[in-house]
Specification:
With 207 residues, this protein is α/β, with parallel strands linked by helices. 42% of the residues lie in helices and 15% in strands. The protein has a six-stranded parallel sheet with strand order 3-2-1-4-5-6, with helices on both faces. Helix 1 crosses helix 2.
Length: 207
């Protein structure tokens, strides 16, 4: 892992402001156009980086270069290392999606210890109920209030995310699988079942 201040130095980002990360493929369903209507509070910076969407030819106007408190990195596809550094540099992940059935970006954020602010789709509401972020109506004023809510409850949200992210750790996942295998294959019922099968094994001798 990379400390937040070090990650910000590496990515050339402000060190003394809160960073809202907007990252992923550029598609209309991501809903990033709402940023144009938002009044980003002072003390916050929206940091954007998007990759070209090779699956369709959507033309989206996301020229936010003159938008107050918005930084567009315009670095397109990032290496795994740089992408991880960008997540570590941020404070929260912003997911103003118009439609969604799942979000790899949300899980990436959680895996890096970052809460989220998202539109209140059913998917995001489920994780909001776990205290991992804030899901709100998809409009500029609600997202502005959402930033304030995140700021007021940040330590609690981050603590919840830290606890939850342990479930996403591959070592813990492997340990959980081992526990399941041991509980099955090391049980008396399993041993008795194997013995029963062996006892009732058909005779393969050819007469």
């Amino acid at each position: 892992e990379v400390e937040q201040n070090e990650a910000r130095k590496i990515m050339g980002l402000p060190e003394n402001e809160k960073i809202v990360l907007v990252q992923g493929f550029l598609t209309a369903t991501k809903g990033w156009d709402i940023i144009k209507e938002m009044d980003i509070p002072d003390g916050w910076k929206v940091v954007m980086n998007h990759s070209k969407n090779h699956y369709n030819e959507q033309i989206l106007d996301l020229n936010l270069n003159n938008k107050k408190n918005v930084i567009n990195l315009e670095r397109d596809y990032l290496s795994e290392k740089d992408l991880s550094t960008l997540f570590f540099a941020s404070d929260i992940v912003f997911l103003p999606y118009k439609a969604i059935s799942g979000s790899g970006t949300m899980f990436d954020g959680i895996g890096h210890g970052k809460p989220f602010l998202a539109s209140n789709t059913d998917f995001f509401k489920e994780f909001s109920k776990l205290g991992l972020g804030v899901a709100t109506d998809r409009n500029a004023r609600s997202f502005e209030q959402g930033l304030r809510t995140v700021e007021e409850n940040y330590e609690t949200l981050k603590s919840n995310v830290e606890k939850f992210r342990r479930n996403l750790n591959w070592v813990n996942i492997a340990d959980q699988h081992l526990d399941i295998y041991n509980s099955i294959f090391g049980s008396k019922e399993y041993d008795q079942g194997v013995k029963a099968i062996a006892t009732n094994k058909p005779d393969n001798d050819i007469n």
